[in-house]
């Protein structure tokens, strides 16, 4: 893809300064930065909750907290990490990179972009503040299952309003992304020339518009059951608590792919760059991503095998869940084929990308095991499930985000990060992650249940290994913040980044200066 481009001088008079630049931000780069700062803050707060949980589980018996508080922490940890860390971080990547990758001057709806971000901090305050409500935060799990959630105190209402705000933010962000990609591409950039990150975000945005209203409906019904005398989920009034699970997981399973498809897009751009080869099977990657999105609506009840559904229902959801592994396998095959006989180098983005493939595939295989109804009934509600979804979401979403940060941060900051420190961050994260989560497979197979503050003595050794790994993992992310990210942004002693810092990189984002100027592509580039 050859590119001709003209970059006008950056008109500094149009650039707001001070706090107004951030409060009234309409520039896609500033809003992307705000999303990432917010996401990393929530990631650290959710991480502190996780470490408190692991500290409690270091030994049998109750060490530092009551079981009620343990359940509040585990419920809020999930909500904070999903709605506060992973989703906003990927929206931050989208805001920064989609206009740069398609040659657009900005996002389609700049003011709506600002509003969709500023809905998040009040939602985060509601969520974290619910710990201080009478009776504490909600303790019905991140899934907020009825009838337990109907019996919780005011912390549950704060959570419901927080999730409503975050859902509204996601819907507005998704509309913005779809309109930007469909209407604002540079001349000559057809759909089948779009970078994979843009494609995966386009599909993710459609998923968000489809499922966020479903979640809003489920939690609104909860609110009505709690305060307005309805009986949607109360059997005493003719309702059905299992119906809540059906509605929630109809949102919840596509949500899993909302959190992983943008990661697939990042990996699909990092691997060709450091293999110095085009992506193997570009069109099959696009179709595989679309297939995953469509199939994700047909597998929700595999989260519910233990509710007593008929055998025919179990069989349908079991086979549909196994089928969705096929397009995912196509992606792994294509990434591997891209690396095959390439001129590979192993800078930090490539290390995180290869680490992603290795560990995400392990999480995928444990997912296949849980897709088998007879096995799932035995493993449901055990630490095997905890191991599975952390392999998919931490080693999946998070590793891909780190790959993306190391890959694109020279364009954002204008400075190259410290390569040695990046590699220390990768190896420390990779080893600590596996030490923390791999033993949970064994705990689950041995029957240790989730969401309990205490456990029998025979589970002690693996829990201690897990806790040590979790604290090491947390320390590595603090190391990333203070030794890698902040020095790169400040630039002291760092090498200035070239416009195209990576040898094999392709795409419009590498045609603008580093750091990317406040205004880019005021004259659209022509893609030939």
Automatic annotation (TrEMBL):
Q: Which domain of life is it from?
A: Bacteria
Pathway(s) of this molecule: Energy metabolism; oxidative phosphorylation
The annotated topology with respect to the bilayer is: Multi-pass membrane protein
Q: Which InterPro entries match?
A: Cyt_c_oxase-like_su1_dom (IPR023616), Cyt_c_oxase-like_su1_sf (IPR036927), Cyt_C_Oxase_1 (IPR000883), Cyt_c_Oxase_su1_BS (IPR023615), Cyt_c_oxase_su1_dom (IPR033944), Cyt_c_oxidase_su1_bac (IPR014241)
UniProt cross-references to CDD domains, sorted A to Z:
Cyt_c_Oxidase_I
EC numbers for this chain = 7.1.1.9
**GO MF annotations for this entry?**
cytochrome-c oxidase activity; heme binding; metal ion binding
SUPFAM superfamilies on file:
Cytochrome c oxidase subunit I-like (SSF81442)
Looking at the record, the residues that make up the Cytochrome oxidase subunit I profile domain are 13-528
| Entry keyword set | Cell membrane, Copper, Electron transport, Heme, Iron, Membrane, Metal-binding, Respiratory chain, Translocase, Transmembrane, Transmembrane helix, Transport
A GO cellular component annotated for this chain's UniProt record is: respiratory chain complex IV
Question: One matching Pfam family, short form?
Answer: COX1
Function noted in UniProt = Cytochrome c oxidase is the component of the respiratory chain that catalyzes the reduction of oxygen to water. Subunits 1-3 form the functional core of the enzyme complex. CO I is the catalytic subunit of the enzyme. Electrons originating in cytochrome c are transferred via the copper A center of subunit 2 and heme A of subunit 1 to the bimetallic center formed by heme A3 and copper B.
Question: This chain belongs to which protein, by name?
Answer: Cytochrome c oxidase subunit 1
Organism field? Paraburkholderia sartisoli
